[in-house]
Amino acid sequence: MNMRSVPSPDDLTTRARIREASIALFGEGGFAHTSVRAIAERAGVSPGLVMHHFGSKAALRIECDEYLVETFVSRKSDVAGPGAAQTIREWLGDIDQFRPFVDYLSRMLLDGTEGGDRLFDLFVAETRVMIDRGIADGSMNDSSDRDMLSTIVALYGVAPLVMRRQLGRSLGSDVLDASALRRMTLPILELYTNGLYADDAMLVATREALAATDPGARSRPGEYDDTVTDSTKGAGR
Amino acid sequence: MNMRSVPSPDDLTTRARIREASIALFGEGGFAHTSVRAIAERAGVSPGLVMHHFGSKAALRIECDEYLVETFVSRKSDVAGPGAAQTIREWLGDIDQFRPFVDYLSRMLLDGTEGGDRLFDLFVAETRVMIDRGIADGSMNDSSDRDMLSTIVALYGVAPLVMRRQLGRSLGSDVLDASALRRMTLPILELYTNGLYADDAMLVATREALAATDPGARSRPGEYDDTVTDSTKGAGR
DNA sequence: CATAATGCTAAACGATCGTTCAACCTCCGC
DNA sequence: GCGGAGGTTGAACGATCGTTTAGCATTATG
């Protein structure tokens, strides 16, 4: 009896069944387009009962948000050893475990609710930990702004899910299909390994351009001034 | 008399004024949350006139979509010389020119309308041209799947705009503010230059893992088999 | 057994929405 | 000057929505 991420709708409390129906419909059509009557019908109850249990549609949404955020926070990873493929395996495990909720979570990140904010902050924090470890053990490159790097990497991580439709159209199959994930993995990893630019000409030029119009950065002596210049690029100029 | 991207609402046709009001409100609150009455009020007309000019709210949305897509397609770049900073300058010029429409365009990319599809395809196509040129002149690294790379880079380009709220929260200021753009530029460019991973250990391991479970890839002789292994990384294994 | 509480239904209310309609005004061609 | 066409208004219609309410079972409690 292993725990499924989506239990059969029959052995649930009526309250939980309404919540599951709401999450499904909110994920499919969004909050505004989903009516209380549609939720009630999917849950097999009357519209009045939805109000009886949750008070209002907005409160129902908040409860769904919090339920999913809590579920996501307390998820347990596959405890793969700290090998190289751990990160990817965890990421794939996450999207496999939360497959029915991907659309809901994506909408959360976009609709400006508190749950979406907490979710994104969680992603950024976890990414930050991963990057800190990677830099510590030498497997990752540092950045001139590690907070910003963490935010960007987290953003790039959720971007394929948030823009699932467009990316799926471009791929010819749904992003969460195994074939699509397989096809995406290598190019992304190549990008994260080799970078896009063959040399640092663009980086150097931009760095100089920014410094030229910098609003008083050189006046602060405490800050680090020369940015990180590791890696083996350097054909520019 | 330079052309502003947003003309004063007074010297416009009533039809155009309704369209401008719709774009503004759709961008702020989305299509579902914006009522015809609100559009009419913002345009200074009666709700009936909106229907008289556009037939229905859905038709009005389609016209707004097509108007913006057409405007975006026919935009002219700043014709910066083919130097290194051209790409960034064009990108910054775009978001500066379309600043009032960023939210609307972002919603288009997400709401599954035809206009959003055309917009994303346009981004991917332009990115593909940029990458083709970069690879041709040696300034960019090739990928094992150049189509996929183009899609990913395009996706990563619009991601900060689509997730404007979350990124803005993380930055402490709006993404389109000069300070935010300034702060984002270098870390992104570093990521695109040096990559995130310091060596190709993760890439090699994933490549092998994918090949082990590959559904009949080695049986096709026509395909290229060994992926690109340029760049100067290679400390792995 | 009586009673209160709980889970639940069906109907209705009030608000809002997209849309329609009849009428009015204005301007232009004849 | 006259008539018609198009721009415009404001009211009203019908549908849908979130929510409320009254009532009905069922169950637990004294």
* Count of individual helical segments of chain A: 11
Indicate the low-confidence ranges of chain A by residue numbers.
1-9, 219-226
Gap from first CA to last CA of chain A: 63 Å
CATH fold label of the largest domain in chain A: Tetracycline Repressor, domain 2
CATH evolutionary superfamily of the largest domain in chain A: Tetracycline Repressor, domain 2
CATH first level of the largest domain in chain A: which class?
Mainly Alpha
Query: Helical residue percent of chain A?
Result: 55-70%
SSE string of chain A, helices as H and strands as E: HHHHHHHHHHH
* Total DSSP E strands of chain A: 0
In percent terms, what proportion of residues of chain A is strand? under 5%
Question: What structural class is derived from the secondary structure elements of chain A?
Answer: mainly alpha
User: What is the gyration radius of chain A calculated from CA atoms?
Assistant: 22 Å
Largest interchain contact: A-B, 76 and 76 residues
